[in-house]
């Protein structure tokens, strides 16, 4: 009998099956390890196959891409900030225009009031006065009251003096205050009429009416 036949006869069927299974597992494991080792080797060869300059260029390109992304983000933020500032400027410009319009309206009102005041002053000084030496001008107020204005009127009788009529009694004699015209003027003034209305009713000059009222006791 040969050696192979003796060895096969000595081994049972169960032992032979176990050996074959172990051998198969060992072959499969060895195959997987070899494939893994080959893959690692190929990867290293690929990495090492790139020159140093190429790797540096790739790194610079990646850095530039990162910088470009950051710049785009910064530009977007700047555009948003610019839009917000433009909106605020527009709002403030509208408010400023409204304030300027109000200022223009107030200036127009002030000019109108100044023109009215100037007209009243011209009217007060241009009214004909009663004849007499140095009769003082009369300033008319809106309330209807009259007061002699303090103004120097150099006349022939007062060139060497003060030029002022401090006492109104010297302008018109005392008897003039008891005449019918004066009484009528006083009566209408007591009723609340203004000098222009009194002059219109009595068909007299406004300056004369104002002077009579100014001389009233």
Notes on the structure:
The protein has helices spanning 3-10, 13-49, 52-126, 180-190, 195-202, 206-214; strands at residues 138-140, 146-148. A two-stranded antiparallel sheet has the order 1-2. 8% of the residues are buried. The longest helix is centred in the middle third of the chain and has 75 residues, at 52-126. The termini are far apart. Helices cover 68% and strands 3% of the residues. It contains six helices and two strands, in the order H-H-H-E-E-H-H-H. Among the domains are: 49-106; 127-152 and 172-217, no CATH class.
Number of helices: 6
Number of strands: 2
Strand order of the largest sheet: 1-2
Structural class by sheet pairing and helices: mainly alpha
Q: What's the story with the biggest beta sheet?
A: 2 strands, antiparallel
Order of helices and strands: HHHEEHHH
Quaternary: single chain
Stretches where pLDDT falls below 50 for ≥5 residues? 129-176
Whole-Å distance between the termini?
176 Å
Q: What's the Cα radius of gyration? A: 60 Å
β-strand percent reads under 5%
Q: What general outline do the C-alpha atoms trace? A: rod-shaped
Overall pLDDT level: 69
Helix amount: 55-70%
